[in-house]
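Practice problem 4.
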């Protein structure tokens, strides 16, 4: 069963990776990077502070926890444990697959890009679903960033899917932890005031 899933994953990767255009290559490379998203992060920080004021510290703590958890689980634990080479490091695909500029570390399962972007999207959606509508677009952003990794030849689709699942889960866990800590802190402050 595992071998069948791996075969389908590799076949899907080869199909998706073969769909590339010269004009799109630098765009996907930029999408996969960090610098291009700095204005987005600044905009999100602005929205958080504008809507929550002093309470925004809890959101920033939650985002930090969500990304820390998702990144450490994928990069710190899963990649060294599973040791699945990235497609661009797999000699079977030499001359077959497309890789643009950069390959990254040796192992790729699961994708940290996918886990981190989906963790942020999940945390923001849960936190603001009542206050600010429309944060669902962050999932589209996370999906585009994640797809860029397949396009560039540095991840298989399963790396992305598992990474996205982990990111969503870590976003939920970070939100739950922050809510519990915040409620405990508020309770203690109220008890001290009595």
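Answer key:
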């Amino acid at each position: 069963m595992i071998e069948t899933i791996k075969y389908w994953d590799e076949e899907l990767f080869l199909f998706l990776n073969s769909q590339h255009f010269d004009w799109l290559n630098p765009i996907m490379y930029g999408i996969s990077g960090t610098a291009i998203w700095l204005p987005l992060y600044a905009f999100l920080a602005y929205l958080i502070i504008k809507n929550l004021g002093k309470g925004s510290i809890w959101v920033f703590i939650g985002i930090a926890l969500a990304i820390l958890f998702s990144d450490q689980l994928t990069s710190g634990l899963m990649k060294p444990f599973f040791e699945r080479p990235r497609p661009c490091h797999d000699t079977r695909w030499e001359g077959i697959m497309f890789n643009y500029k950069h390959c990254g570390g040796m192992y790729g399962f699961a994708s940290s890009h996918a886990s981190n972007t989906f963790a942020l999207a999940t945390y923001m959606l849960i936190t603001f679903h009542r206050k600010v509508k429309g944060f669902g677009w962050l999932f589209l952003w996370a999906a585009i960033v994640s797809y860029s990794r397949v396009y560039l030849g540095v991840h298989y689709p399963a790396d992305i899917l598992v990474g996205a699942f982990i990111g969503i889960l870590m976003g939920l866990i970070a939100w739950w932890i922050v809510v519990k800590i915040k409620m405990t802190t508020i309770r203690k402050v109220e008890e001290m005031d009595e």
